[in-house]
Amino acid sequence: MSLSSRYQVLFEPVKIGPVTAPNRFYQVPHCTGMGHALPHTLAAMRAMKAEGGWGVVCTEYCSLHPSSDDQPHPFASLWDEGDVRNLAAMTSQVHEHGSLAGVELWHGGSYVANLASRVPTIGVRSMPSPGEPVQSQRMDRRDIREFRRWHVAAARRARQAEFDIVYVYPTHGYLLSEFLSRSLNDRTDEYGGSLENRVRLIREVLEETREAVGDECAVAIRFSADGHGEDHLSAEEAHDAVGLLAELPDLWDFVVGDYYGEEMATSRFVAEGSLEERVANIRRLTRKPVVSVGRFTSPDTMVRQVRAGVLDLVGAARPSIADPFLPRKIREGRLDEIRECIGCNICYAHNYRGAAVRCTQNPTMGEEWRNGWHPERVAPGDGGSVLVVGAGPAGLEAAHILGKRGYTVALADAAQEAGGRVTLESALPGLSEWRRVRDYRLTQIRTLPSVSLYLGSRLSAAEVREFGADHVFIATGASWRRDGVGRWHVRPIGELAHEAVLTPDDIMRGARPGGRVTLFDDDHFYLGPVIALLLASIGAQVTYVTTAGSAGEWSHYTGEQDATQRQLLERGIDIHTLRTVQGFDGREVETACIYSGKTWRHAAATLVLVTSREPQDQLYRELVGEDASAQDLDVQRIGDCRQPALIAHAVYAGHRAARELSIDFPTPRRDRVVL
Ligand code: ADP
Ligand code: SF4
């Protein structure tokens, strides 16, 4: 297949100052949870994007000096020669594929706490770090001079590491954006007061960076197209600031001021391409090329924004994680094969937890070096047959990969529709893009003649044996518990009027309680709040009770917690945090403070329990028998029926089992410094 003329424009080279991007696909800086800690892993992951056709591949935020250390989040760094060598591994591999490598030089200012380096933090004035009981030291003139010197030294090291694009980064609340802020910057010298003064340091750093990197490297700037809120930098001031700096950088990388709420919001809250208008407005102020993001997965949206002159380069972080080969697939006319990002932010959450990035849609993300996994290639199998029971994300991914490896696969599901939990959950408010997990795999499976899908087929152990496949994968999922057992209750809740208790499974299969409903969320992620919203939207009077300190607390890591809580409050849902449910008699729910044990009672006709899940592994257990070793059958369980977890875990489990079937895989490599 070949490139449709419609998409030709995406493959035009773009000049960025002294360097030329081979096409318009630009992987903007995005965090990875790898950074300085996992250099081989990082280099191989970035190189995979270049192989997949991204014309520019950037690092994540890359600390320019030990006074900017974001531990426990693994940031990249360019502090010394060792960092130069590590990052040179990335640039050389990116260059092998003809792509450019960019580095986002970063200083966190008052935002960081320097937990590792223990160097005092610096800021435009002394203020608390958002996450630690630490305040920064106000920068005096000498500190500003020092900072400029560090930036220059890091830019030189970036060149040593052979980066082609070096960023100046005055946004996202970090040091240079502190200077831009009308409220935080209370300086009375030439760096404070008027906008021109507040922009001065950025201007100096841009000029000095250019001088430091020489004439074979471009200088980019990442800047908010709508400022940082009225208190800091209004949209109007942001425009004026761009006017002041317009032609200084070689490239403008536009973001927006609301990082969690918009720029990197999940698909629950923000749709593809939401920055368009603001970028279109601000880009008129410069003749330099512009890149921006928008969780772009549709080539038509990309083309439209390029043709409309909004973008010169199509920026992507998450779409490049979900599909490192997105550009090549467009180029080769393989649009059906694009693994579209679902906007769940599981990638970001793991960086936040200090772990290497992973992806719901792309199970090979982060495994390129450790396990040698390629997102588009798998080794052929031994030609046998496999029965996969359960067509949820685990079973679908397994069948897809087994089919690609040449196995004859029968994929059976009891339901009339494939997708398991993904099909059910994606019908809930805001989760419709999650269908892509199912649809991508079904589309792939349809192209594989050796894979047959049998819906409406609930299989018993006898039927599985009778089927006679060489290998059996059990992917039968998990069900939500009806007894309240979860994080808080290790035993079933004593008093429960069972006839008036519902689980998420009931709601997802159509139960719609009205009147007074209490939802007990001991799961702490998205499902409790999403179900509470659904019930409120059909008129139920919902009380949300959680043992956590906030609604959907774990969604703090996906960047959604604020928006989640706001949404519930706006819907009129009564929120009780740090409380457990002690009992429910069908008329009243008794709740208790998790610290003091103080109890309250409130009226409720229905109690929805979102506590924990029970693996549906009966079929597996019947097959393997008492001692869990079916002598006559090669059977394994994958996904939620083994370990109830995120959809990302289920996809990964299905992928791993399918990729490794009949192959003696080497032990995964460990990325670390060995003395
Ligand atoms: P996972 O996330 O591990 O993929 P899901 O719960 O999403 O798990 O999917 C499990 C699927 O298994 C569901 O679609 C369910 O209908 C199916 N299933 C469960 N038991 C059987 C069975 N005995 N035979 C066929 N399909 C089954
Ligand atoms: Fe997209 Fe989710 Fe993958 Fe992140 S984890 S790239 S948001 S699909």
Keywords:
29 strands, five-stranded parallel β-sheet, binds adenosine-5'-diphosphate, 675 residues, eight-stranded parallel beta barrel, binds iron/sulfur cluster, alpha/beta, Rossmann fold, FAD/NAD(P)-binding domain, TIM Barrel, single chain, 3 domains
The first-level CATH class of the largest domain is given as Alpha Beta
Helix content: 25-40%
Question: Helical stretch count?
Answer: 21
Q: What is the total domain count?
A: 3
Instruction: Give the percentage of residues in beta strands.
Output: 15-25%
Tell me the radius of gyration: 26 Å
List the ions, cofactors and other small molecules found in this model.
adenosine-5'-diphosphate, iron/sulfur cluster
| Multimeric status of the protein | single chain
Biggest sheet descriptor: 8 strands, parallel, barrel
Going across the major beta sheet, what is the strand order?
Answer: 3-4-6-9-10-11-12-13
Low-confidence stretches: none
Query: Overall mean pLDDT score?
Result: 96
**How far apart, in Å, are the first and last alpha carbons?**
50 Å
Structural class computed from helices and strand pairing = alpha/beta
Quantity of strands, as a count:
29
